[in-house]
């Protein structure tokens, strides 16, 4: 506890195990030892409470980290990469804590796969378009519909 010397006026922080005299002028500091001890215990209790509080805050933070949304976790991102890769790629870049090189390689892999697939379906799609356009019935022009003609008058 802080004690002010009656001799020189200096303030001294007294601990129970310290001699009860002023370190500056040597005057005896008339403070009951019991009071110093109580003050010291009180301070220790406060420090302990603060330490406990910090520990609790740390635990809460750790728990939050564990409860991260499932799609922010590695397993979730990998799953999404396979199920629906555009979302998986996005989440991977945004949340995964993987090295950038890994992310680049994965992204390139998907880009190559997509390009290959679009070339394959592109040639298929063209032939399909040709057949469907032939089968499509010609659309009636607006002029031949009586209702439209009446309205245009
Ligand atoms: Zn003094």
Tell me about this structure.
- The chain folds into 2 domains: 65 residues, no CATH class; 63 residues, no CATH class.
- By secondary structure, the chain is mainly alpha-helical.
- The model has no long low-confidence stretch (mean pLDDT 82).
- It is 64% helix and 4% strand.
- A hairpin with a 6-residue loop joins strand 1 and strand 2.
- It has a two-stranded antiparallel ribbon with strand order 1-2.
- It has 5 helices and 2 strands, in the order ββααααα.
- Helix 2 packs antiparallel against helix 3 and helix 3 packs antiparallel against helix 4.
- The longest helix has 36 residues.
- The protein is rod-shaped.
- The structure holds zinc ion.
- Zinc ion binds next to loops.
Task: Give the gist of this structure.
With 153 residues, this protein is mainly alpha-helical. The protein has helices at 33-66, 74-83, 85-95, 100-135, 146-152; strands at residues 2-4, 11-13.
| Number of structural domains | 2
Reading the helices and strands in chain order gives: EEHHHHH
Rg (CA only): 40 Å
Which sheet architecture does the biggest sheet show?
Answer: 2 strands, antiparallel
The 3D shape can be described as rod-shaped
Q: Bin the helical content.
A: 55-70%
Mean of all residue-level pLDDT scores: 82
The number of E-state strands comes to: 2
